[in-house]
Amino acid sequence: MHLRSPLPALALVVASSLVLGGCFAQDPNATAGDAGGRIKLAMLQPPRSGLSPFSDDAFKLSRWSTAETLVTLDADGNAGPGLATGWRRTSDLAWEFTVRPGVTFHDGTPLTADSAVNTLTRAVAASPKPRILDGVALTARAEGDRVVVTTGEPDPLVPQRLSSPQLAILAASAYRPDGSVDPVGTGTGPFRLVAVNGTTTATLDRHDGYWGGRARAAGIDVSFVPDGTARAAAIRSGEAHIAEAVPVSQAALLDPATITEVPMPRTNTLYLNTQAGPFRDAGLRAAAREAIDAGELVRGVYEGRADVAAGLLGPALPWAAEGRTAPTGRAAATPPRGAAITLATFSDRAELPEVASVLQQRLEDAGFAVEQVVREYAHIEEDALAGEFDAFVLSRATVLDSGDPVAYLRSDFTCDGSFNIARLCDPAVDEAVRTASLAEAGDGRRAAILAAEAAVLRTDAAIPMLHERVVQGDATSVVGSAKDPRERVLVTVDTHLR
């Protein structure tokens, strides 16, 4: 098995200090007094789309509490008020949302039903559109202080959809004639985004006019630090107050008082290209599945800080384990006989290259000839979505967008899904996902979701290996940071330094 060779302590300190000196935000105008009131945050991934809210960058805006949505989600995934104070379903296809009064955007303009409609209309027209809108025909119009949302077919999850950070409501000034979106100074949250330095740093100041009350921290100084060792070292050295996604290899080196571990709806999955290459053959996909020892990955790569996957949905959704049944009708494994495959992953999450190395060894033991490709995510996503690789190791959040797994199942595994790395197009899967999407919230919907999961697993297009945990680093001076399994919230109105 592929094992780590830790750096000697002195080498680790020297290497970390060199990395930290060059990548953490330093405000030359900060004084000793106001620096203590600002949260220094080390984040995993830099912006990939200029912080466009229609991309995954939206989750950064959400975690910084600068951009907000009409609807919020509680810990159980139930919809609650946000920039909308309430809503009601007026017909099979229509929902009515009442816009919160007295809210002002960071540019000084008021939040209105028209501004909310502007955001939703632009999101529908965006290319690519937000994942939460995959397969959804949605229109919005303003009626007084209300936003009327209409869908092409009955959709019981419209409120949950509008909680997606990719549908955050920004001021009209955010939207440019060329179709780009600039979130600087255009949100509604307790922190106002004031500057973005490319893929290096971002600066947010407290927005004293926030409708939900004055934030306790003076601001947030963000540094984008893809190197996991550097993020962990930042907590030890005091260069950061909060570090997201601490690698498991570094967690044991930190003071236990600075580490929090929470099961999360994130699955480490091997996606197999079903459209081109050797894995068009379901028998070879089955052979790949049988070659993988997920327990080996959990014990060796994740040092026990993960859970072996029984399906696509993990322990952060307890109902999934309670109602899951084994998929039937899987193809029998056929001998690989030296079939050449390209196995790819990205380096932003420190464990993934090591997972790929272990998988390469096991797949070669099973008879595949494996070439491995590892790049930063920003430089590999396009090729992965274009089907350039035979196999791709992905750490994937399964309820990130709506608190409901259907959006993930649709985007990743249906014929027209926008994130279909496996290039899967299976009528039975599409029908199962459609059935789940139309089911009302509750036990019936959960059963339909598990039936759709089983339909995907039957194809072996995706082989779930393990469920990750949030490993977050917080300096002992930090009070009230969020430990959110869905990775939507991090610094809140109540987060502050002792």
UniProtKB/TrEMBL annotation:
Residues 81-418 form the Solute-binding protein family domain. Coiled coil: none annotated. The keyword Signal applies. Keywords: Signal. It comes from the Bacteria. Residues 1-25 form the signal peptide. CDD domains: PBP2_NikA_DppA_OppA_like_3. This is Peptide/nickel transport system substrate-binding protein.
